[in-house]
Amino acid sequence: MFSFFQKIPSITTRELADKLANNITLLDVRTPQEYRSGHISGSKNVPLNKIANYSTKAKEVFVICQSGMRSKQASKVLLKKGYQVVNVRGGMNQWSGRIVGGK
Questions:
Q1: How far apart are CA 45 and CA 66, in angstroms?
Q2: What InterPro entries would the database entry show (predicted)?
Q3: Is residue 58 part of a domain?
Q4: Are 49 and 23 in contact (CB under 8 A)?
């Protein structure tokens, strides 16, 4: 059952890097412009303002943004929709792995 104060599980960007080999569902909730400027390969851009309309067959969803604030908001929305959500702490600011797009 959903509780407003339910703690959203979170992982570090380093833990995320390990999980990427497992073909996970990674949502990048930044704006399309931010996403184009550089994102993690395989991530799907679903801006925060469109997250309520998102649906997937995946049970577990990982969420990332620039700093971790928007992904936390998006995680709460997805949690209410019944997904198992994992927030990526620190967001792209903490990501040191390869990115695609951007300069």
A1: 12
A2: GlpE_sulfurtransferase (IPR050229), Rhodanese-like_dom (IPR001763), Rhodanese-like_dom_sf (IPR036873)
A3: yes
A4: no
